[in-house]
Amino acid sequence: MPDPLAGKTALVTGASRGIGRASAIVLARAGARVLVHYGRGADEAAAVVMEIRDAGGHAEAVGADLSAPDGPHALARQVRSVVGDRLDIVVANAGAAKAVAIEDYTVEDFDYLFAVNVRAPFFLVQQLLPSLHSGASIILVSSLAARSVVGTLSAYAATKGAVDTLVKHFAVVLGPHGVRVNAVAPGIVQTGMSKFTQTDAGRDYALGIQALKRLAEPEDIAGAIAFLASNDARWITGDTIHVDGGSKL
Asked: For residues 47 and 239, what is the distance between their CA atoms, to the nearest angstrom?
């Protein structure tokens, strides 16, 4: 069968590691040309680009600090300089988390989480609108924490609740232009953000809340992202897909 994303261009934010890295590789395998965004991991992003190219795919690295007020604008300018006025897929994966008790959060913690997890994808989509055409797909990354209490993640959870709300508003506004907007909501995934799964207690906790009894890998989430980016998901918009192994049922 032909590559389902052949001829498409994709931007994946936070693609130097974890779910973003896996998503960039899976999209490239499906035929897309991928822009691998990084914030601080330039060397890691370069390694992802080389892995994609060594496999016969097409990729470039783009860097921007999405916690800065002008970060999304700077990234959008870089994207347009590389792909021109046509972008088919946006995966807004870059995110930040902090697990602390409510009384221990600082204003700086709170503002940083909302800057990276909510403000950045909002203004990135805004700035990329001229490049998004009919048939384009935007995928935001939500979380199990948006619908269920998982640890001491109150401020992080609030940012992901905001993401779920943005999906619906973006879908309604962009639908008449033929642009689909969805989110994936992972559960606990073995990434740098979930280092507690490396302990016996953390692993037991994760498996205890899931119907499927294994720990998720980034590739498990990347597959769902690639599906939402594809024409097979052409009639899905405004939705948040739970990709969490049946967590907190």
From this structure: 33
